[in-house]
Amino acid sequence: MESTMLKIKQLLVDLYGCRADLDDDELLQRVLEEAAEKAGSTVVNRLVHRFHPVGVSVFLILAETHISIQTWPEHDYAAVDIFVCGEGNDPSAAWEVIRERLEPESHEIKEITRSIGERRA
Amino acid sequence: MESTMLKIKQLLVDLYGCRADLDDDELLQRVLEEAAEKAGSTVVNRLVHRFHPVGVSVFLILAETHISIQTWPEHDYAAVDIFVCGEGNDPSAAWEVIRERLEPESHEIKEITRSIGERRA
User: Are the beta carbons of B57 and A49 separated by less than 8 Å?
Assistant: First the structure.
């Protein structure tokens, strides 16, 4: 029987000292939608949640995976997760859009490789 | 000025050969809700998306972070992301619930440490 493992690159990014307004949920959704588009991904669903007094979570479900952001505006900090798969999809392109729009002073990227599919003994 | 960095453990888990029905969105939501509870987290919002012909994504937004699952039932494969923070929260407890309920033949855990908050130069 044929193995169907697919290696997928997932980016976990911590953004520090962002100049953008991390409490602006509409801005964050726009940025993520643009990032998904640049990555070559199709958005099939989304969830935007506002915390009180501050903080936003945005999840975009893509054709097979997701992009998310969660913000702590009181620290100018955001946690981004870019998990895209599929022919021609490019998580780095999504990250470039987010970096340009949120303007972090510094950031830390962790690049994780995941094996999706069937693992046979 | 005081630094407010918080080290958070994030678990990325690939589940192979699951015995549970990975196309059952209600089951998956129940499992994640139970996992969040066991981790000591509070669910503040959720998004469940069904793919056609098969596949489910469930995102739970927690008081500060999230738990998610995305499934490929055709491969008995699921990708789980457990990102919980806060006093007394335990991502391992969430993972134990998911492992027991979805019964993977094998799995691979990646444990990532993220630094949340303000980074000063």
Answer: no
Residue B85 domain flag? no
Q: d(Cα B80, Cα A91) in Å, to the nearest integer?
A: 19
A121 part of a folded domain? no
Full-model pTM: 0.93
Query: Which helix (H) or strand (E) covers residue B80, if one does?
Result: strand B77-83
Instruction: Determine whether the interchain pair A16/B64 forms a contact, defined as Cβ–Cβ distance below 8 Å.
Output: no
Range of the domain at B48: 6-80+93-116
Instruction: Going residue by residue through chain B, which has 121 residues, state the pLDDT in tens, using 9 for 90 and above.
Output: 456 788 888 999 999 999 999 999 999 999 999 999 999 999 999 999 999 999 999 999 998 799 999 999 999 999 999 998 877 788 999 999 999 999 999 999 999 999 988 886 5
Nearest to A98 by CA among A7, A22, A45: A22
> How many domains is chain B built from?
1
